[in-house]
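Comment on the following before class.
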Amino acid sequence: MDILIIGGTGNISSEVTPLLVSLGHNVTVLNTGRHPAPQGCKHIKADRFNPLEFENAVKGIKADAAIDFMAFAPGHCRADYRALRGNIGQFIFISSATVYQKPHIKLPITEETPRGNPFWPYAQDKTACEEYLESVHGQDFPVTIVRPSHTFGKTWIPSPINGCGFTVAARMLAGKEFIIHGNGESLWTLTASSDFAKGFVGLVGNKGAAGEAFHITSDEALSWNGIYKELGAALGANKMNPVHIPTEFIAKVYPDARGKLLGDKAENGVFDNSKIKRFVPGFKCEKSFAAAIRESVAWFMEKAERREVDEGEDRLIELIAGAWRADGALPRNAPMLNPPSFQ
C-alpha cells in the first residue's frame, strides 16, 4: 500500500512507521524535518500547522491510507479533509482515550463509553476533532479513529504530572521526594509503543475499520504505587521516598495538572480491548510494564547526556511537595488517605 503519515517520528509513530516499512508498504512522512525520517521512507518537508503550506504539500497525493499523528484541533482535521478528500482510501485520526467520560461511570472502558471530559481542553479538542471527522466520513473520505491511552517508547519514562524524561528517575536514584497523586492505589494502564504499533498496523487498509473507533492498550493495569515500585526496581534505587498528595491539592498548586490528573491519570484507567482484537485477530500486547520500563531505563543509562534533569520540572516537584508540607490541610474537601508502605 501507499501510505502517507503526517508526523512519523514521535513517541508512538516512531514505532508505527518503521513497522509499516518492514511490512513492505511505500511510506511517505510529512513533517518539518527536525527529526530524520525513518529509513526507507520518502520525506515531504512541510509544517502541518501552517494550513496553506500543508495543503500545498499534499495536493495531488494519492494514497491507500493517510494517518495523522499531528491533528490536535478541528482546524487541523478540516485541512486534512480539504487536502485529501477523494484521494485516499482511508483516513486514520490519532485521537486520545482522554475523550472518554470523566469521571468514569463504568469499568472497563469500551469504545461505547460516552465521550465527555470537562477537565482538560486537550481532550475537548480531540473530541471536537472526532465529531468533525464523523460528520465528513464517507466514501470519498473514510475515517477510522484510534485512541491511544498512556503509551510510551524506550526514550520515555512516563510521569503522571509532567515530563517523560529522566527527572523523576534522577530524584528516585538520589533518594529525593517524588510525588504520587492521591494514595497511589488508582489503577492505570501503560502501553509499550511497540505493542501499540502491532495492533495499529492491522487497521491500516482494513476496510472494515471505516467508520469505527478503537482504543489500543495493554490489558495490564497497575496501581501508581506499583508503577513506581517497578520503576524503582528497574533503576536499582536503594530507598524510595514517595510523597502522596491529594490530586485536588496538586491541581490547586499547579493548575496545569488539573486536566492531566482529574481528566486522565487520577481515574482508574482500565480498558476492554475486545474490539481491536476482533478487527486484528491474534493481536495482543506482549510487553509487561516491568519489561518495557526496563528497556526505557537501559536506553537512558547508555549515555550520560540522556539523563538530563529538567530544572523546571525539578523545581515544580519541590514546589508542590513543599506546599503540601507547609499546609497539608488544604484542600479540606480532599482528605489524604493512608498510602501503603514503600519499604
Remarks:
- The longest helix spans residues 121-136.
- The CA atoms of residues 55 and 151 lie 29 Å apart.
